[in-house]
Amino acid sequence: MESQSLYQLFQPLDTLKGIGPKLKSRLKYLVGNYVIDLLWHLPNGLIDRSYNPNIAKAEIGRVATIKCIVKKHSPSIRRNLPYKVICYDDTGEITLIWFNSRKDYLEELLPVDREIIISGTIEEYKNSKQIIHPDYVIDSNKNSQLPEIEATYALTQGLTNKVVRNNIQKIINYLPKIDEWHDQLFLKERNWPSLNNALIDVHNPKNDIDLTSKNPSKERLIYDELLAHQISLYLISNDMYYQKGLSIKSNFNLINRFIDNLPFKLTNSQLTCINQITDDMESSNRMLRLLQGDVGSGKTLVALISILNCVNDGKQAALMVPTALLANQHYESFNELISEQNFKIDLLTGKTSKADKELIYKNISNGKTNIIIGTHALFQEDVNFDNLGFVAIDEQHKFGVHQRLLLTSKNEKLPPDVLLMTATPIPRTLELTTYGSMSVSKITEKPKGRQNIVTAAKPITKIKETIKSLKKTIDSNNQVYWVCPLIEESEKIDLAAAEKRYESLQKYYPDNVLLVHGRMKPEEREIIMEEFKSGKKKILVSTTVIEVGIDIPEATVMIIEHSERFGLSQLHQLRGRVGRGINQSSCLLLYQTPLGENAKKRINTLRETNDGFIIAEKDLLLRGSGEVLGTRQSGFHIFKIANLNENKDLLEIANKNAKKIVDNNLLLENNNYKQMLKLFSKDESLKYLDAG
C-alpha cells in the first residue's frame, strides 16, 4: 500500500504487500474483504515480553525472552514427530519445538553456533524446559525488532498473531492523513486525540487499561462509530418520516364506543399507545412506529383498534403474522370483536384453497375486503390492494426486511402507515441503535385481572416427581407445555431429547401427550397445535417452536427442561405461553447441576420478576450487545468496536449529536462527516440526505 490516499483503505486486502490468496481468504473470514476492515480489528489482549531471565531462572508458564546459542538440530524421523532445536546459555539448555516444519527453513533460521533471541511461553517436559513454536526467533543484534509489549488479536484457524499484527502495522505505517470532523474544542473537552493518532494508539496498547474504553483513543473511536451509526439511522428514518403518507381521520366516537363495549377494561398503557398511533395516522406524513409490549400485554387489541380506525376512514388494513395458526386465531377473534361493524375480514395463508385465494385477491383489489389477515402470503405478487392505508406486522423480527418492504409497498398511490409489533421488550440502548428515530410506543402493564406467573427452579434429578405432579393439573382440566432443547439424542450434549421425553410422559399419561418440533412440516405442526388447543390432550412436548404461539387459556403449567441452556429473553418468551387465562399459572425451570454463574443469574432473574423490560435489560447485561444482536439472534452484527453494554453513556451523547447534525443539515456543510460515514461503512445512508 504505497499511496497516501484514503481510497487505499477501501481496497481489497491483497493490495497489502505479502497477502496472497490463501492469507487473503483467512483474513477475509476473520475481518472482511477490505483493508479498512483489518484496521478496525482492534487488539483484545497483551503479551508482555519484557521478562528476560536466563534459562535456569525462566519460570514455567511465563512468556520469556531469552538470549541463547543454537547447539544442535534434531530433525524428526517421522512426519508426526516434532522437530527439535537445542539451545543453551551459561546456565542450562532449552529445547525449541516445531511440528510440521521444513528442515531447510529451520536450518536457515537457526544456524548452529548462532546467538539468537527467542520469545515464547516456557513449558516443562520430562524435567527439561521447552518452547513449542516460539513466537519470535531473531538474531541477537536485531533486538529492537522485538516488541516489549505486544498487542494480541482475535484469530481464526490458520492465522497467527504475528501475521495479523504485522499486516495491521503495515496499514498504520502508511495511514493517510484523515481530515478531522470534530470541533477541536469538543476533542479538547473529551481529552480525545486526532483520528490518526487514535488509530495508531489503539493498535499499540501499553497496558490493560489501553484495551478498554477508558483509553481516550479507543473511547473516541467507539464514539465515532456510534455517531456514524446514529446519523445513518436518522437519515433513513427521516426519509421514511418525511414521505407523504395517507392522512387517516380518526373517529373517536367509534373508537370509544368499541372500547366501552369490550368485556374488559384496557390498561392505561394501551390507551396511551392508541392515542399515539391515531395521532400519527392523522398526520399527512407516513407513520413508522414500533409497538413494544410484553407477552400477553394486549398489543394485538391496540393494533385492532388502529385497524378499525383505518377502515372506518374508507381505507384497507392488513395484519401480517408469522404462522397460519396465529393468523387463524386473530381472524376468529377479530370477527368476534367487530361483529357489529359492517366490515369484511378475509384470511389469507398458505393453507387457503386456490379457489378461495382467487376470490380474496379479487375482493382485495376491488376494495370489498376491508381487513386482510395473513402470513407471508400477503406479499405475493397476486395481492394488489385498492387503497391500503395501514399495515400491522406482528412479531416483526420473524420477517425479513425485504418481506416487510414488499407488503408496505402495496399501495401505489401513497405508502401506508406501518406499525411494527414485538413481544420482546427492547432496552433503550438497543432501541436507539436498531430503530433510530422511529417512534416507539410501549405497553408496560398487563391486562387487569391477569395474574403473575409463579416461577420455580429445580435440579433435573427431580424429574420423576415433576412428572407425577402433573396429575393434579390434568385432573383440574388444565394443560401443560413441556419444552426440551433437542429433538434427538446427542453424544456431545447430554440433554433430554423431546422424543425421549414424549415417550416417558406417555407411560404415565397414555394417549394424553402430543409432540411438536421444528423438523415437522408447518402443516403437521398446526394440526397438532389445533388438537392441543381443542383440549383433547393435556400435555404438549415441544421444542422452542412454541415460543411464538397461540393463546390457550387452559394452559397453566410451563416446564422448561435444561433451562440453563436457554437465553433469558427466550425463557421469558416461553413462560409467556401460559398465564393467558384467569387461573393461576406456573413455570418450572429444570436445570442440570452444577450451574454456571450466568445460568444462575438468568434463572434467579426469571424467578424474581415477570417484567419483560427488566428482563431485557438484564439479558443485555448478561450476554452483551454482540450476542443479543449477533447472527444467532437477528442475522446482523451492528458494530465492529462499540459494545452497547459498556458504552451506554457514549451512545446517549452520539444519539443527541447525530440528531443535531441531521436536523441542522451539518452533513451538507461539513464533508468530513461524510468521510466518517464512509470509514464506518455507513455511507449508503447518504442517498437519504435530501429527505425533508
Instruction: Kindly report the spatial arrangement of strands forming the biggest sheet.
Output: 6-7-4-3-2-5-8
Number of separate helices: 24
Fold-level CATH name of the domain at 252-443: Rossmann fold
| Reported CATH architecture of the domain at 252-443 | 3-Layer(aba) Sandwich
Structural class, from helix and strand content? alpha/beta
CATH class of the domain at 252-443: Alpha Beta
- Please state the overall shape, judged from the principal axes of the Cα atoms: globular
- Give a quick account of the main beta sheet: strands, pairing sense, barrel closure: 7 strands, mixed
Percent range for helical residues? 25-40%
Average the pLDDT over all residues and give the rounded result: 86
Rg on CA atoms, Å: 31 Å
Number of E strands: 22
CATH superfamily of the domain at 252-443: P-loop containing nucleotide triphosphate hydrolases
pLDDT < 50 stretches: 626-636
Our measurement of the CA-to-CA distance between the termini, rounded to an integer number of angstroms, reads: 41 Å
Report the β-strand fraction as a percent range.
15-25%
